[in-house]
């Protein structure tokens, strides 16, 4: 009888311990806490994501496609008046571009950011404040301007990656290029500055492209920061002219050179 009682007592103890463990697991599941042996990070966020691939720190100008390809880049938006018009023109001519967005504008207009991505264009970080004196500011300030804008743009884009960084006014520094490259963004320059932001007139914008294209393949336009009616009109003329001259269209390089 003593043996039987001992066996029964052991069985009850095992059952009780099992019940407590099951009860704790159910409580954890109901509360959102990880169960025993489970990683909190894995439960909350899934597997850790790999860090972005570091890009070259040098400023890109060349076209991925090489040859006679040119790169269309458009800065300072997105803007609800001008960006849709430029997207329509680009689509009409089958051209893809890089949109260099200001972080708060992207946050304000996620529908436009989504449209840019849906149409097959690429995204570029153009900082939070469009501060053309960034090269005179602290490294901490540059980092905040660049990385906060990147997050705003990617959040507005539903997770699409920002692939380039363009310093406002070309105010790059070795630190800003390093920060961007370590975050997976290639620093992006330009060869043809249309100066459309100065509102020189449609004809002047078009002539600048024609006269300065020999400088290199990356052309700078703007869809934000002011009245861009002249830019819209110029883009309608520039794209077919480029095709007539035998140019194709590409994106700027992200890896070497």
Automatic annotation (TrEMBL):
Chain intervals for the UniProt region annotation (Disordered) = 25-56
Which parts of the sequence belong to the NodB homology domain?
A: 68-250
Which positions carry the signal peptide feature in this UniProt record?
A: 1-16
Question: Keywords for this entry?
Answer: Signal
Q: Which InterPro entries match?
A: Glyco_hydro/deAcase_b/a-brl (IPR011330), NODB_dom (IPR002509), Polysacc_deacetylase_ArnD (IPR050248)
Q: Does the keyword Signal apply?
A: yes
Q: Which SUPFAM superfamilies does UniProt cross-reference here? A: Glycoside hydrolase/deacetylase (SSF88713)
Q: Does the keyword Signal apply?
A: yes
The molecule here is called Polysaccharide deacetylase family protein
């Amino acid at each position: 009888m003593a043996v039987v009682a001992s066996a029964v007592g052991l069985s009850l103890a095992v059952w009780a311990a099992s019940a407590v463990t099951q009860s704790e697991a159910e409580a954890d599941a109901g509360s959102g806490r990880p169960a025993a042996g489970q990683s909190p990070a894995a439960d909350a966020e899934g597997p850790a994501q790999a860090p972005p691939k570091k890009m070259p720190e040098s400023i890109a100008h060349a076209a991925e496609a090489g040859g006679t390809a040119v790169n269309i880049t458009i800065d300072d938006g997105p803007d609800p008046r001008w960006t849709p018009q430029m997207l329509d023109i680009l689509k009409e001519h089958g051209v893809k571009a890089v949109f260099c967005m200001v972080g708060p504008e992207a946050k304000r207009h996620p529908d436009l950011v989504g449209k840019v991505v849906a149409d097959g264009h690429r995204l570029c970080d153009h900082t939070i404040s469009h501060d053309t004196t960034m090269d005179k500011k602290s490294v901490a300030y540059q980092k905040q301007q660049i990385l906060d804008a990147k997050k705003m743009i990617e959040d507005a884009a539903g997770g699409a990656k920002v692939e380039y960084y363009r310093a406002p006014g070309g105010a790059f520094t070795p630190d800003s290029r390093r920060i961007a490259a370590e975050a997976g963004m290639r620093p992006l320059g330009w060869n043809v500055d249309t100066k459309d932001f100065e509102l020189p007139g449609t004809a002047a914008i078009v002539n600048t492209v024609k006269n300065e294209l020999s400088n290199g393949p990356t052309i700078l336009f703007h869809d934000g920061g002011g009245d861009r009616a002249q830019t819209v009109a110029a883009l309608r003329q520039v794209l077919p002219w480029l095709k007539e001259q035998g140019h194709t269209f590409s994106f700027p390089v992200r890896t070497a050179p």
